């Protein structure tokens, strides 16, 4: 079976301050999550039910907070054997982190680095416009959820073609779109999907959508 594992990065310095966007590092709490995620990856993603190493992939964005969240995940070399018995010609480097620009968080342009309260005070019209149509609203000099849907499309297709389980360490906005796509949700609903910090979402695709399991690694 194919699985997708989605997680947001561990809590960042900006998350603590309530600021959006930026490229801050992890808080102490976020670093703790990174360590717990590494254990989860080792036990539950990189190993199959029989305890054998299983080829798996690890994708992050190009931002510090996702790369730092991946930092503790081991990437040993294994000899890959697939369920059909075929062996890889070459050894497989397990979970080597791959930083993907498409996975970078929705860019808030002029509002990058502000809190929602600051945006409401400084740009009240913008704040109102976003509330009225969160899907189509584009930040000044930034992106909309619609823009993000377009840039994630090739990546979603690549995910569908990949036969190994993939762990994506991403961002709230990005994971909302990927989640909505694989769960077969309406676009309008995507910007409101709940993707909490400190959880791993495991999606198992089936004929018409996905089965979902949520694992909380930290409260
Ligand atoms: O607050 C974390 C964050 O990832 C921001 O960087 C981003 O702008 C925001 O979430 C996206 O959520 P929303 O679309 O609800 O503002």
UniProtKB/TrEMBL annotation:
<protein>
    <recommendedName>
        <fullName>6-phosphofructo-2-kinase domain-containing protein</fullName>
    </recommendedName>
</protein>
